[in-house]
Design goal:
6-stranded mixed β-sheet, 24 strands, Purple Acid Phosphatase, chain A, domain 2, 24% strand, 7-stranded mixed β-sheet, globular
Length: 476
């Protein structure tokens, strides 16, 4: 075991080491047929208890918990390379942004990539690309006691081949990461699946004595592990459409933890789960833009993602004016997309049909967006923010319409504490439903139907439904 990472009797282990150990324990225990309520390591103030916990991890890993013998998807940063992720926006069959963090600014940052695995030696990869943006994460005073200075790096890859695995390593100065890979979206009409879920932040009263402890998030870690398992079990999954509210606030002490926890979605073989991001009401700070950077962004995080020749996902931004420019953009894009796509569905943060919060909060969505969803026969609407599991009955013209209505699913279960929904609301009546449960949806598309399943934290199926495509436009 590397001595510089060993626990010293001189004092408590560092925040960075604690979070690495915590993540590794979550991953290792997930591989064992036992049920354990993981204690948050940050709350363990006594060095003896920290040492005991590390000894337990040594037994589980059979070696150095900070190298994990290659059996965990969460490995320590390679000399400071951390938070490796893939961002998708408009054309995931041909372009992507690869992002990561370092604890030092550095001078040379690039990605080496190829369509074949090359074992991690940079010079063996066919292509390389420099960063288009580097910078220091913005900080506020409250970040100082929880984090160290952290730098973001973003590389834009284009002219990629559709439906193709891309293998990559990241270089920051003299540090080189392990080999990762992701799979581009198909360009042709092929079956595929995506995950959808939102609200992976901590609760408003989380942590010791109700404090806002950014390290208190075992439920998010468990849901990330669940997504990694789904990705391993269902290799047709190509991305996670995240419905927003990644952190309590878009500030480094929370974002750093979210980024570290998101590494748990990487499979044991190094497959990365691309993110299609939505902006939530807790994501208004500049940190959101520092995490999800894209060159020459055309709009304020509302855009269309072409998942295949016949599948389009529209991401909207409820943190802007819902009418005006965004509403006009939505109608223009729905008009074009509905003519040429078998499946058109949407995601955004604050719901039109709430499961928990006051329905009056949805007046703008119901006024400006829902009539367009119905006019252009959107196939499915994905929402978040209310912190409960829901699927509405099919809705049209503000009433149940079991034959021609639109189904709305949600409402954010990727780790945030779950609330109790109001089952008396008419849109939650059978065949709709709502319950309090952490969850992630897997949406599987083919030419004839879309199958949606909501998976709970332990892998249980909480909902299972099927939809047929609404391929013909409806104009009033």
């Amino acid at each position: 075991m590397r001595t510089e990472k060993a626990i010293s009797a001189a004092g408590p282990i560092s925040n960075l080491t604690m979070r690495t150990i915590n993540n590794l324990i979550m991953r290792k225990l997930n591989d064992y047929p036992i049920s354990v309520n993981i204690m948050n390591i940050k709350e363990m103030k006594i060095p003896f208890l920290q040492s005991l916990l590390l000894l337990t991890l040594l037994i589980l890993t059979g070696g150095d918990p900070l190298t994990a013998g290659g059996t965990s998807s969460v490995q320590p940063p390679a000399k400071g390379i951390d938070h490796v992720r893939v961002l998708w926006m408009e054309n995931p069959s041909s372009e992507a942004v690869i992002s990561w963090s370092t604890r030092e600014e550095g001078k040379k940052h690039r990605v080496y990539y190829d369509t074949e695995p090359r074992g991690g030696e940079p010079d063996d990869y066919a292509k390389r690309q420099k960063t288009f943006r580097d910078g220091k994460f913005t900080t506020v005073d409250e970040d100082v006691s929880w984090t160290v200075p952290t730098y973001y790096h973003h590389v834009y890859l284009d002219k990629l081949k559709p439906a193709t695995p891309y293998y990559l390593v990241i270089e920051s100065d003299d540090a080189v990461s392990r080999e990762f890979h992701f799979v581009t979206a198909p360009e042709k009409d092929e079956p595929l699946a995506i995950l959808h879920g939102g609200d992976s932040r901590i609760g408003a009263q989380s942590g010791p004595s109700g404090g806002l402890d950014p390290y208190d998030h075992n439920d998010r870690q468990k849901m990330n592990l669940r997504m990694a398992t789904l990705l391993e079990d269902h290799p047709g999954i190509i991305a996670l459409a995240h419905g927003g509210d990644y952190c309590l606030r878009a500030e480094l002490r929370f974002m750093d933890r979210w980024l570290t926890d998101f590494e748990l979605t990487t499979t044991k073989e190094g497959r990365l789960l691309p993110i299609i991001p939505t902006r939530g009401n807790h994501d208004k700070g500049v940190g959101f833009e520092e995490i999800f950077a894209w060159p020459d962004l055309k709009t304020d995080y509302y855009y269309t993602t072409k998942l295949s020749e016949e599948i389009a996902l529209i991401t909207l931004n409820t943190e802007l004016s819902i009418g005006g420019d965004q509403r006009d953009w939505l109608e223009k894009n729905l008009d074009a997309l509905r003519r040429n796509n078998r499946w058109v569905f949407t995601q955004y943060h604050q719901p039109a049909y709430t499961s928990v919060k006051n329905p009056q909060r949805s007046a703008s969505q119901l006024t400006y967006w829902v009539p367009l969803f119905e006019k252009y026969n959107v196939d499915l609407v994905c929402e978040s923010d209310d912190h409960a599991l829901k699927r509405t009955l099919p809705i049209r013209n503000g009433a149940p319409d079991l034959e021609n209505g639109i189904v709305y699913i949600g409402d954010g279960g990727l780790g945030v504490p779950q609330r109790t929904p109001d089952p008396s609301r008419w849109w939650l009546q059978k065949p709709g439903f709502a319950k309090s449960a952490h969850h992630v949806f897997m949406l599987q598309f083919n030419q004839k139907e879309m199958r949606g399943r909501a998976f709970g934290m332990d892998g249980e199926v909480l909902d299972d439904f099927r939809l047929t495509p609404k391929a013909v436009m409806v104009h009033d």
